[in-house]
Design goal:
Helix content is 68%, strand content 5%. It has a single domain, classed as Orthogonal Bundle (Arp2/3 complex 21 kDa subunit ARPC3), CATH 1.10.1760. A two-stranded antiparallel ribbon has the order 1-2. The chain has a two-stranded antiparallel ribbon with strand order 3-4. It is mainly alpha-helical and 242 residues long.
Length: 242
């Protein structure tokens, strides 16, 4: 995932310190806090005996998988964001909190992403990626999954959600850079690089998300938040045939 430093271009969506100026960093810090506070309030209705342990497993899995980079171009690699994956398995509100916890730990203990940029990183990867991924998943499931439910179709839904969530998160980065970019690269260069690389990274994100969601759905479809909530709205039993 792509990040820019004031003098060089490196790879990682975790924005480091100094990429955007202080006022914009502070603005997105406030946006991130407000968004997470809203998620805490809404997540209370989602958390039950199934969702709580699942949320812990999802956060731990995403933290571990984010340590693994996969190549997309010569000299360019990416790793899982996990927003769509978390949203499909535990819901968008709990999912956003899971991703935010991962980002905070990475920033404070592993210097993966700048502390002053933490609000922007949470806005992009925890809020935008998660909620865009979930909205795409709901729309795609209603379009192609519900009429003839299968694990394969659920995998397609997960792939599309992850791809769109990744590109949306990159778009958040571009918007923040347009508002207060402090690096030497032009906005056009940043936008082209972010959208180009993250369209490719989104494919890898989609494949990982699809495989993971399909594995959980085959073993315990009742643990997949998307299936549970869509079954409630359609009054269908939870489950997808193998």
């Amino acid at each position: 995932m792509s990040t820019l430093t004031p003098t060089t271009t490196t790879v990682a969506m975790h924005m480091s310190d100094g990429i955007i100026n202080a006022p914009v960093s502070a603005l997105f810090g406030v946006i991130a806090l407000a968004g997470l506070a809203f998620c805490v309030w809404r997540a209370r209705t989602d958390l039950d005996e199934k969702t709580v342990p699942m949320a812990g497993l999802v956060a731990a899995f995403i933290f571990a998988v984010q340590m693994i980079n996969f190549p997309i171009l010569p000299g360019v690699s990416g790793h899982l964001l996990g927003g769509a994956l978390a949203a499909i398995l535990v819901g968008p509100y709990t999912g956003a909190l899971c991703i935010a916890i991962v980002l905070v730990v990475q920033a404070l203990l592993f210097a993966d992403g700048g502390v002053t940029a933490l609000g922007a990183n949470i806005t992009n990867m925890a809020l935008i990626s998660t909620f865009v991924g979930y909205l795409v998943a709901v729309a795609a499931y209603r379009l192609i999954g519900r009429r003839s439910a299968s694990v394969g179709r659920l995998g397609v839904v997960a792939f599309l959600a992850a791809l769109c969530g990744t590109v949306a998160a990159a778009t958040g980065f571009v918007v923040e850079y347009a508002l207060g970019g402090a690096a030497a690269e032009s906005l056009g260069t940043v936008a082209a690089y972010m959208w180009g690389t993250h369209a490719l990274i989104g494919i890898g994100e989609g494949l990982i998300t699809a495989v993971t969601v399909m594995a959980v759905a085959r073993a315990r479809p009742d643990l997949v938040y998307l299936l549970r909530t869509q079954a409630r709205t359609s009054h269908d039993p939870i489950g997808v045939p193998a």
